[in-house]
Amino acid sequence: MSVLKQSYFGTFTALVTPFKDGKVDEKAFAQLIKMQIKAGVNGIVPVGTTGESPTLDYEEHLRVIELAVQAAGGKVKVIAGTGANSTKEAVYLTREAEKLGATASLQVAPYYNKPTQEGLYQHFRKVAESTRLPIILYSIPGRCGVEIGVDTVARLAGDCPNIIGIKEAGGNVDRVSQLRDVLPGKFVVLSGDDALTLPFLAAGAAGVVSVASNIIPRQINQMVMGFLTGNLLRAQMLHHRYYRLFKDLFIETNPVPIKAAMAMLGWIEEECRLPLVPMSAKNRAILRKTMVDCGLLSK
Number of folded domains in the chain? Predict the structure, then answer.
């Protein structure tokens, strides 16, 4: 099956949640989404890892989803981060996101609990049965302490029709090949790491949930669509041009660097919530130099 015929392909921006004086900066958030739409991305992902979902309360979490749906205005997909390490909480957030008009749900593996593969299966199945939304699983073992096994993904895909894809953020290109080997062609694999997007695409991924596209959405979209439409040299050129930026946006814990970068551009306040703290002066200088070298800032 051609990737371009899948339901979810291309660039999906893992949006930051901008804060101002400790509160969600709703005006800045709406402006960021309008910029994403203008740049041609396929979708946005509010309240994921990059959106600092662990430090938002329920009311804020759902308000950010509501704002995203409103700002998107049906022009791009809205994949709402509604996962949790409590199945009951994940079900609640997912149902509420559906009511608010989200297009799909991103479901991170339960963190800290370290469930078995059977526990992961039962968790995701329970969430899937609670909603009509398409669900994209999210495997990020570096944060969650557990990987969603390939066999578990295949089992869920077979038993739950609305589990339609997975965001792979384990840093392992071979996982894409393993997944493609056992899953139907319509099942979507998305890169969860900007620096690995191109090799993931080569192995059969359909796109990326991108952090870097918060600041270079058009370029990420051009890289992904270049590859998917056969312009491999264009995709390679963009990958190499921005590779150092991809790496330096993770020089400290995400989303600290991307928020620092966006503040340097004057788009948002450089504000995260504890326990995240501002970047060190050393790493800030490294990131700024990279942005200058990429043509995003003047010296």
Answer: 1
pLDDT tens readout for residues 71-91: 999 999 999 999 999 999 999
Query: Is 99 a known active-site residue?
Result: no
Q: State the number of CA atoms in the 13 A half-sphere of 46 facing the CB.
A: 34
Kindly report the CATH number assigned to the domain that includes residue 157: 3.20.20.70
Task: List the structure tokens of 272.
Answer: 């995260």
Q: Which of 167, 186, 247, 299 is catalytic?
A: 167
Question: Which entry of 8, 77, 121, 138 is annotated as an active-site residue?
Answer: 138
The torsion defined by the Cα of 117, 106, 221 and 5, in degrees rounded to 10, comes to 80
**152 in any annotated domain:** yes
Distance CA 81, CA 158 (A): 23
* Residue 240, in any domain of the structure: no
Q: In this structure, how many other beta carbons lie within 10 angstroms of the beta carbon of residue 5?
A: 10
User: Which domain does 101 fall in, by range?
Assistant: 3-229
What letter does residue 196 receive in the DSSP assignment? G
Has 299 been annotated as catalytic? no
Q: pTM (2 decimals)?
A: 0.96
